Amino acid sequence: xxxxxxxxxxxxxxxxxxxxxxxxxxxxxxxxxxxxxxxxxxxxxxxxxxxxxxxxxxxxxxxxxxxxxxxxxxxxxxxxxxxxxxxxxxxxxxxxxxxxxxxxxxxxxxxxxxxxxxxxxxxxxxxxxxxxxxxxxxxxxxxxxxxxxxxxxxxxxxxxxxxxxxxxxxxxxxxxxxxxxxxxxxxxxxxxxxxxxxxxxxxxxxxxxxxxxxx
Length: 215
Ligand code: ADP
Ligand code: AMP
Fold this sequence. Notes:
This protein is an alpha/beta fold. The chain has one domain: P-loop containing nucleotide triphosphate hydrolases (Rossmann fold), CATH 3.40.50.300. 48% of the residues lie in helices and 15% in strands. The strands form two sheets. Strands 2-3-1-4-8 form a five-stranded parallel β-sheet, sandwiched between helices. It has a three-stranded antiparallel β-sheet with strand order 6-5-7. A hairpin with a 5-residue loop joins β5 and β6. α4 runs parallel beside α5 and α6 packs across α7. It starts with a strand and ends with a helix.
């Protein structure tokens, strides 16, 4: 099962990705998590990506596409994978299609988690993420069981630097300009499905399970 999660920042992609990856035993590949890990390890890629991420801008395609190609060429992706935060531009989507066609593979489902803009702000400013495994929490809607510690691995949870109000605005504009066109792109490829992301986390997951059960 090869799945792409689509939706604006804060839609719940990371939250649902953890649940889907667990349920269907496919690796969760988040380009945002990959960049953040590179930033904390101070790699060359991390240093390059940081400037764009802190401003709420996209990391350039030429730094992003090869990372994903290398990752999905690994053995653990043979039976499927779940992309979260990639593709984010039409150019990235075309590069992914070309890569998969050459391997005689294809995307089975591009799943849009639909959340209107006005609901996003609260979600992002209250978000906390695990510094180690990237799990996503919310101070009100999905708090950790022990304050400040990840439920999954016990590591500290922190606020993302790019979850400030100003940067969130920029990221939503970037989404509208550069990423939202992918909804039509995947509709034209006849793989688009969508779920109502305004419901509570478990109900969104139930809907996703039903959608994925049909493909
Ligand atoms: P994305 O990966 O799409 O940017 P996240 O999964 O990190 O989004 O979710 C953004 C924030 O919203 C997090 O704080 C998360 O705990 C919270 N959240 C996710 N799904 C829901 C939901 N269905 N209802 C309320 N809050 C949610
Ligand atoms: P995310 O964790 O998905 O919210 O991504 C955080 C930030 O990482 C984004 O705002 C971008 O700066 C960068 N990023 C993640 N994925 C991509 C991508 N596919 N293309 C370009 N930039 C990305």
